[in-house]
Amino acid sequence: MRIRLYADSESIHTRRCIDYFVSRGHEVGFHVPQPQLLHALSVTDYGYQAVKDSSAPVVLTAMGEDLLSDIRKDPSLLARVSDVLRQAVLVTADSLELCRIARKMGASRVELVRFGADFAIFSPSGDRKSFRESLAVAEDVKLVFSPRALTRLYRIDWIARAAALVTARFPQVEFVFNTYRCDPQYRAQIENILERHDVAARFVGPFSPEQMHYAYLASECVISVPSVDGFPVTIFEALACCRPVVLARLTAYEELLEHKHSAMFVDSEEELAQAVIALLEDQELARRLAALGQQIAFKYGNLHTEMEKFERLLLSLLQ
Fold this sequence. Notes:
Layout: E1 2-6, H1 12-23, E2 27-29, E3 37-41, H2 46-53, E4 58-62, H3 64-68, H4 75-87, E5 90-93, H5 96-104, E6 110-112, H6 129-135, E7 142-146, H7 156-169, E8 173-178, H8 184-196, E9 201-204, H9 209-218, E10 219-224, H10 233-240, E11 245-248, H11 251-254, E12 264-266, H12 269-281, H13 283-300, H14 303-317
Helix pairs in contact: 6-9, 7-8, 7-12, 10-13, 12-13
């Protein structure tokens, strides 16, 4: 296949897409001549560009922000997104919720394809000490990891304020924030909150996949509390590393995970702090959630299984 991409060149999803299809003998990239398919990784922005190209059928990969944001409050934006969805020969999404919304907005063919984790990298095996040593963390310090982008969408301010409550109970806890896609003004706000409450925190990254693996392994728990989301690869990665996760109560997350069974779900900053404290206090709870979460990751979040499914879907469009 010859696939022209419309996507963020720095995104992990873009890099994995290119790596997989090239390894399978396909031609894929941003300037592929005479493409057979146009693949946009997002409905907005890149989807708009792909449908304007018109040199080949369009395949869209919908992101949580595309369809779960406040587009319904803007009739012109809603119409534009719906028009892009209708023009695609295939729309994929990483949650059942996103699939339902895409169909409701006019997409003719929608398939569930998840952003899986690479289990060759993400597993409970590995060096837990190297990441801690890179941060020069004292032996008695426990780390809590926020792997999501440092932007308002991911409500990192929730984590910063919850951190004050957690460290009041556990002074030896330090929070680690990923600086991926860092919004400088928002980071300054987060640092202000942490400083006001005298919370020890590290800002590290961006990470390579291998570094992310070490960060998960070094952490007592992993937090993801965005305002909207599909089912992100970071959750599958953390679960594959057998780390307990604390998550916003979002529909896509609850499709696969259950509160106090395979994850801790929260609706507020206070509940977030309580959930982290519960995992730090109760090692048996943390181990049980991690073990059950890992089973779910292995069942639903295998990168290679999902990419093979996506490849079959694309090949079927050319038959």
